[in-house]
Amino acid sequence: MVPQAAMNALNPVIKVGEQVAEPASIHLGVDKVGAVSLVKKMFQHVGVPEDFIVRYPFELSGGMRQRVAIAMSLVTSPNLIILDEPTSALDVLTQASIFNVLKRLKAELGISFILITHDIATSSELADEVAVMYAGQIVEVSDAYHFFDKPLHPYSQKLMASVPRLHGVKEPEFISGRPPSLIALPKGCRFKDRCPFRFEKCDEDPPMFNKEGRLVRCWLYE
Amino acid sequence: MVSETTTPALEQTEKNDQARKVILSIRDMRVWFELRRFGFGHAGYVKAVDGVSFDVHESETIAVVGESGCGKSSLMKTILGLHKPTQGKVIFDGKDLSELDTKGMHWYRSHVGYVQQDPYGALPPFMNIQRILEEPLIIGGVKDKEARLQRIHKAMDEVKMTPVEDFLQKYPHMLSGGQQQRVVIARAMIMEPKLLVADEPVSMLDASVRVEILKLLKGLQETHNLSVIYITHDLSTVSYFSERIFVMYAGNLIEKANVRQVLDNPLHPYTKALLTGTSEPDARNAETFKEIPPGEPPSLVNPPTGCRFHPRCPSFMPGICDVKFPPDFEPEPGHSAACWLYE
Fold it and tell me: Nearest Cβ partner of B280 from A121, A128, A144?
């Protein structure tokens, strides 16, 4: 698990090397000497200089802290890492370099990732498969290639249109209205009040439809 | 070195914009913060802004783009008069900021609006919306209560917080992030300023709300002929909001040009890196590694000699880049870059 804000996730009064080693000593029973070499190896994977072991979190930049947090999640050699908005607090270049690290880990160590994010653009940096969530439900599951090419669910389409592009001619649009309260959910499709394609059928709960291997929760694809 | 930084590019844009009045001009501004050892004893300076000059014209939107720690917030706070520049001048509407007295600063502040980055932190939690919006009017000398209420209604209308009555008695924590940011914008607009300084106004908001707020700002800019200084680290939001971009790195403006010129044909290696680093939704991203410069922005206490980007630069030329500070070169009209490649 890699949390969102790396500063808050690291204990400010413990050296980062110790913090990274902690899961290993608890779960794997690694001794102190073993832990040091393990941490060094992890730091190498994520691109943190080895002598950072004895530093405290406040001595590191935001990007380095996030790398340390990733190293910490790597130390027990997991098969799955959950990333909760790993780069939302970081600058553009730092963000890109963190994703380079994650891509390398994926290729070299074969780790699976679940990336949770509100930013479609960053999700395309890592994802093989995309699931879009709206008001407590998954509304679309698709392979990344087709998803970024042409999203199916109206909400995904709107979401895609709201992303500002560097070279696009089209102005980004926003989705009018706001998500429904999760206490009093509307009957039927949860997106219907904001949906441009709304029709009678939308008052019934849409199931997941299978459209050429992609799943979408929308009556349009019945 | 100092005088070289006031550039041919600037004069060029001034020529193009002769019809428009210059509303704010910054001349060779330096903002240094002194470092002290144990509370006394000089230990150097943090050179947050080091030799920045530019002009803002009437009803023009300008984006200052840079990573955190490059000095863009210090630049903005000096423009607002919260920091005193160590050197250089801020001239607003023909008046030098450093020569204004208390009354003059009053006048200045009523003509410059400020939109903060974190809307929740910017709104006092113990005041309701009406009180928050009334405050600048009271300080600005609007004595009549009815007139104040009228202006509050007008400002709330403009930021599309309707029906106004529903919101006036609410407290900031009762509003969503987007609504809070609207209140912050209404507060900035209520004195009908000529210049709006927006410091990352959308970085704390969701993608869709982000676009809504940017459109709102753009609408206000057009209806009120506002000049806007938009400070951001996100190049992708810049393209449809501003006319000119200034790219800032380690306290210097390294590239100045129109938006399309920067986005379609970046000159400075740092701008190129920033553009590569910005993600766009595309499945191919997952298969490619991005080429980004190694390392991190330099310490502003002891910045590298010569060009400050040279230790990270892919086109570093030994003997030139690490020795001499690059002035602004202008390889194409209206587009300048502080880089020796374009000498």
Answer: A121
